[in-house]
Amino acid sequence: MTAGHSVLIAEDYPDFRARLVALLEPLSLNCIPVGNGRLAMDLIQDLSQHLDLLITDMDMPVHTGWEVIEACRTHRGPGLPIIMQTGEARYTYVKRRAGEFGIPLIDKLDVDVQLVPAVRRALALG
Fold it and tell me: Helix and strand tally (H, E) in the chain?
């Protein structure tokens, strides 16, 4: 049952954030969209907030996606799945850093095709 899965979506562009939520709607997930890294970090640090997955952009105001990922690992441990989606996924340094964190990296141009399968894998959904 997927209705119990909570997904934090950190993306600063409102239209793109809405697009990510819409793509995940068929999975019946509890999506928690936020517009910057600080809001994402606040939710990550609030351990009363149940989270099953973090989807983050790389470049956001206040805190970057990398900082959000580091906070997630610190406060939620290495077991919480993380997916990064960014318009800069093609750059070697971005691929290398995502590899260091052991997280899937999706180019924003490919989210329509790659996001749902990545989320299904991350949450072990059928």
Answer: 5, 5
One of 3.40.630.10, 3.40.50.1000, 3.40.50.150, 3.40.50.2300 is the CATH number of 6-120, namely 3.40.50.2300
Give pTM, 2 decimals: 0.95
Among candidates 37, 21, 22, 12, which has minimal Cα distance to 87?
A: 12
Q: Give the type of residue at 113.
A: V
The amino acid occupying position 36 is: N
pLDDT in tens, 38-55: 999 999 999 999 999 999
**DSSP β-bridge partners for residue 85:** 106
> 114 with 106: CB under 8 angstroms?
yes
Tokens 């970057």, located at residue: 64
- 9 close to 55: Cβ distance less than 8 angstroms: yes
